[in-house]
């Protein structure tokens, strides 16, 4: 029955999407489809009713059915804002479309997370569309977390999620005995209507908001993050063997005699990648990237696989990790622990001195890592030439030096083609056993973190390009070109600092943006310009189409290197096994993945965003808590953002607070949106992004994750003046294909996992696949790939060139350009 209804729905949607379609009555639709018999008519009516309930079609007052988008209506998800307004994100969003702005007066009872129908009504400012909610199709919030406020005969719960703007009324009998200040989980029993509040019942008391650990627990429940694994999953995990068998080695390439190492943080336990580098006789480098073969143990459709697919990613909170797969696998048989046999999927690449991958091969293997190295030790060997460590790891030291050389070559290749290289400061909040923050320390991305980044990224690119040219369904990591209006605003912003970008925003090459970053390196405005540039870009996401990666300036990119903590990587491994190892590229196999991959990609992208929000929330919460006992203390900081309600100031340890406009008492300050500045009407004083000031901490609200500052004084350095002649950034003359995708703030194995918020960084691979059991390609086989690579010719930068990350590595010599 359901299959027949769904079939009718699909046919109706296809019919109604035709250009010539005009709204028809049910009788006219019945005639158009040639429906016969009472049963057929009933199924047809059920399909229409279902479509109407879901908002897929609209019934007019004359009982005619049509599509919402053809009636000036939008179906989508409502994203609320703490200030009362909201946006509707359309489900059928076309490239370039904006979200629909909904004023507070036009919400009509809709709340954050609801699926709604909205009518497009007007243009509010610029090109932004406004609308009003005409129907709530489905409530998005069934449960939420908040703080209980007690009254005599009832109580209220104030939601932690400030996007949910309605408090929840709780009868005394439905409070579970909660008292003032308890953090609780509430089930919504009725939603706000007319002037009545939402109502609910307490279903779980997490503890008092001041109890140790309750704050993080509240965030976990707020974002519906899964804690314990289901019993069935744990039983399945416990049945996985702890050692590999002879049967496991069948058809695997034996690399156990190779010098292969892992390089990770000292406290890392899930070691999912290992590397080796060899200098070849022809002067090229052979790079082996060996990734834990998680897909061998996590079989498709198994309880572990189903749970991992739902979680989609590990989540790295301040005081804990919520893993994607059970620790018995992630820290055990799947972890590439030292001096034990482990199953891997390998990508071996031959790379020349220009950073080009001239040959590559993808295959299943078995390895035994020689050493478990730490970032700190590799850095000490390469940068400090620590004699004790050099002696301890003497057999490995020559390879580490070659790794440094190769990493610099790969990095220079990326920079030549125009990859955008953000280098934001990152901080880590240290907490004690009770979860109380003890310090906020800066993370150092040294040469060792950076070389692992380069190796992981070139492997990801090589794998992505390989499957692109195989022309089979695949999982890609994409980053679409920035929106034209946002880039235009950014270009206008940088003119305040004396930089002018030549050319149109809709034809921007990432190289032009990278040139700006090179020019501002070491300047007071470096962090500010980098931040505003990042905010001008889209988010990176997963997609079944190869839409390219703007930030990396590459056409092909995927995530292959972290299957322990990212489900898309596990899927990529599964596809490698399907297409290459098992040789299954038949129509049925491709049809299966063509149908399943878009849904997996969308869900994984959503779960990644959920994880990022939870990680950011706990980080900000603990930073605020760290500042509670710092009230009255003074610090130097930099204005990081200017709004109409005040100045945000960032301290050297990345903690950010607000100087509210009401604390600027020496004058009446006007917000200059064009120049991102506050200007005093009487004194002419100007506070602008990038200004260095001294602040005093005056208030901290941990629950709101808010820190308030007041200005004590300006730093003694002179105010930055505009350049007499702006530095002009020329667009590279080489064209690049316009593609789709979204911007990235998660790093590729640089520093501790899950903590970065940067772009992917990457190299470039080439080749077509061939053969069963392994895949390889040579430079000649991939000529068609390299011919279409964007940005092969270098655009000359006008600014000071960055010193190479690896130029202090022994044995690395920068090539001199030959005179023509």
From TrEMBL:
Composition bias, Low complexity: 773-790
Q: Where is the S1 motif domain?
A: 632-712
TM stretches of this protein: none
Gene3D superfamilies under this entry?
Nucleic acid-binding proteins
List, alphabetically, the SUPFAM superfamilies matched: Nucleic acid-binding proteins
User: Keywords on this record?
Assistant: Cytoplasm, Exonuclease, Hydrolase, Nuclease, RNA-binding
Positions of region (Disordered): 722-820
The UniProt regions of compositional bias labelled Basic and acidic residues, in chain numbering, are 741-763
Matching entries from NCBIfam families are given as: 3_prime_RNase, RNase_R
Q: What does this protein do?
A: 3'-5' exoribonuclease that releases 5'-nucleoside monophosphates and is involved in maturation of structured RNAs.
**Record-given protein name:** Ribonuclease R
Task: Record the organism.
Answer: Bacillus wiedmannii
